[in-house]
Design a protein that fits this description.
Helix content is 48%, strand content 16%.
Length: 293
C-alpha cells in the first residue's frame, strides 16, 4: 500500500508555481527551511491550488492584504495583522490571494529543529491568530533578521536560534490571546476533526472515533449535528472524499491501489462510494482533472 501522496517544497514549487526561482530550490536545506518577504515576490499561482499535503510546517504573517486558505474541511480568511499556521501533513489549498499582499512566508520541517514545541499549532482553536500592532512589529523584526541571515550567509545555527525565538513568541501569543470560550460540544468537535486528520484512511466508523473520545456513537452524532448540522458519518465521508481527491490528483495509482490506500478492501465498493458522494466515478474525476490542466 502506497502512502498518502504529499508535496515537499521543491515539488510544490515546480508543479504549482509557474515562474519559480531555481536559485531558491538549489539553496541548501530548501526542503527543511525557507523564508521570503512576500511583498517582494510576485509568483504566478494557478488558483485555486489543488488540495495537497506538505511535508513542512507553513507559517504566514500578513501585514497587509488577505488570502483564503483551507485546512482539512475548513476554509479560513487570513487578513491583515494575522498569522496563519499550518502543521505538516494536513490537507490544504489556497483559493484566493489579494494583489496587495505583504508580510512573510516561511516553512520548516519538524526535523529541522530536531525538537519543536508545536503545541501552539496543534491545539489552537483555529490556525489563524490575530496579532496586535506592537506584536506585529516584534514578529516582523525577527523574520527580517531570519531572512537577512538566510539570504546573506545562511548560518544555520543562527537561523535556528531566531526561529526558535519566533516560535516561542507565537506560542506565548496563542496562549495569552483572548479567545471565545468553547462549549463542551465545540471542544469535542475540534478533537473529532483532529482524530479524523490522523485516522480517516484507516478507520471509517463513528464507533472508532466515539471510543477515542470516550463517548457513545449516538452522543457524538448528536454533538456534530448540533454544532455543524451534519452527522458524524457524513463528516467522515467528506474527509475520505477529500483524501481521495488528493490521491487522484497527485498519484498514478489505479483504482484498486487507491481504494486500499484509503482503507477500502473492495475497490468496487470504493467506486460506488465515491460516485455517491461526488456524482462522478474516480476515473471520471481523474479525466476532469486532466482536462482542466
Amino acid at each position: 500500500m502506497k502512502p498518502i501522496p504529499t508535496l515537499n517544497p521543491t515539488t510544490f514549487w515546480q508543479l504549482l508555481i509557474s515562474d519559480y526561482d531555481h536559485f531558491k530550490l538549489d539553496k541548501g536545506f530548501f526542503n527543511d527551511f525557507f523564508i521570503q518577504d512576500i511583498s517582494k515576490q510576485a509568483y504566478k499561482l494557478k488558483l485555486p491550488l489543488p488540495p495537497h499535503k506538505k511535508t513542512v510546517n507553513d507559517i504566514i504573517l500578513l501585514t497587509d492584504g488577505e488570502m483564503t486558505r483551507s485546512t482539512g474541511l475548513d476554509n479560513f480568511k487570513v487578513e491583515k495583522n494575522s498569522l496563519f499556521i499550518l502543521p505538516e501533513g494536513l490537507i490544504t489549498t489556497t483559493s484566493e490571494i489579494s494583489n496587495n499582499l505583504k508580510g512573510f512566508y516561511l516553512h520548516f520541517s519538524d526535523s529541522y529543529l530536531l525538537s519543536t514545541n508545536s503545541k501552539f499549532a496543534e491545539y489552537m482553536q483555529t490556525p489563524i491568530l490575530k496579532v496586535e500592532i506592537n506584536e506585529i512589529d516584534r514578529l516582523t523584526y525577527l523574520l527580517k533578521q531570519i531572512e537577512r541571515i538566510y539570504n546573506e550567509n545562511f548560518n544555520l545555527d543562527l537561523i535556528k536560534s531566531y526561529l526558535y525565538t519566533f516560535l516561542t513568541e507565537i506560542n506565548y501569543l496563542s496562549e495569552h490571546t483572548k479567545k471565545t470560550k468553547l462549549s463542551t460540544a465545540e471542544g469535542i468537535v475540534i478533537s473529532f476533526k483532529k482524530l479524523l486528520a490522523n485516522y480517516c484512511t484507516k478507520e471509517h466508523t463513528v464507533e472508532f472515533y466515539a471510543n477515542k473520545l470516550n463517548i457513545t456513537p449516538n452522543h457524538l452524532n448528536k454533538i456534530t449535528k448540533s454544532v455543524l448540522n451534519k452527522s458524524s458519518s457524513s463528516i467522515i465521508n467528506e474527509m475520505l472524499i477529500l483524501e481521495a481527491k488528493v490521491h487522484i490528483h497527485q498519484s498514478k495509482q489505479n483504482i484498486g491501489e487507491l481504494a486500499f490506500s484509503l482503507g477500502f478492501e473492495d475497490p468496487s465498493y470504493f467506486g460506488r462510494f465515491f460516485k455517491k458522494q461526488t456524482g462522478y466515478t474516480p476515473t471520471e474525476f481523474a479525466k476532469m482533472i486532466d482536462l482542466s490542466e
